Amino acid sequence: MKKILTIITITSILFYACKKDNPTPEFDEQNLASLSVEFDNIVGGRTFALNNTAVPYTNAKGEKFTISMVQYFISNIQVTTTAGKQYTVPQDSSYFLIKGADKATRFAKVKVPEGDYSKLTFVLGVDSLRSTMPVDKRTGVLDPAMGGGHGGGGMYWGWNSGYIFFKFEGNSEVISDDQQGDPTGKKQFRYHIGGFGGYSAPTINNIKTITVDLNNAGIAKVRKDRQSNIHLFVDLMKFFDGTNSFSIKDRPTVMFSEYSTNIAKNFKDLFTHDHTEN
Q: Which of 114, 136, 239, 244 has its CA 20 to 30 A from that of 50?
């Protein structure tokens, strides 16, 4: 009898845990509508442009620079209604690679239940669960073969078995010839920020969850008869001038190193809600 009660108790706990872990029990999964999130790159108060050598950008340190590449992963999108209910987009449909050189990729398009949403949450990077899944579970923009090749822009470290969450490259005259940078002498800065926390042992973890309040610039009123679009500005200047301001001259190259965690803390400063189109 005692054994039977124990089994019943364990079963009840597991049932409760499964029920509790269900992120969207109160939503009608059959009544989905379109929502897009637009990641619009800017640089300070200026329009984003690649290789803008005629009028370079200037950071808070007074360092002039141009941008040759910017790419980053957005994943695990979640929205919250005005009543406080959270809906998590199915993970398989929630990975996007935003490429500065391809304007078509700036839209992350998902399906969510009809409703009024006042909060947007997403991950900048690729979560540890997906990073450690078998390759057949990592398709599309997460395909390591594509990410490691020229087509994907080299967003996967084959030597480190992990994704580069944010790749940012460019040129600046403040980089001296003898600094560790581009061996061709082009005075190139390179920031490849990644690290999901490690598989078999703890390592650098630069996964960042970003939450954006939509109330001030317009909530998303998602309906089947129209497309809602949440327009976010992504200010690349904050990469240098965010919470942890740093100098290009002092740090022209940062990859899988402890200092990358300081830069990753600036990710939350990049995103500002501009407006919502309903």
A: 244
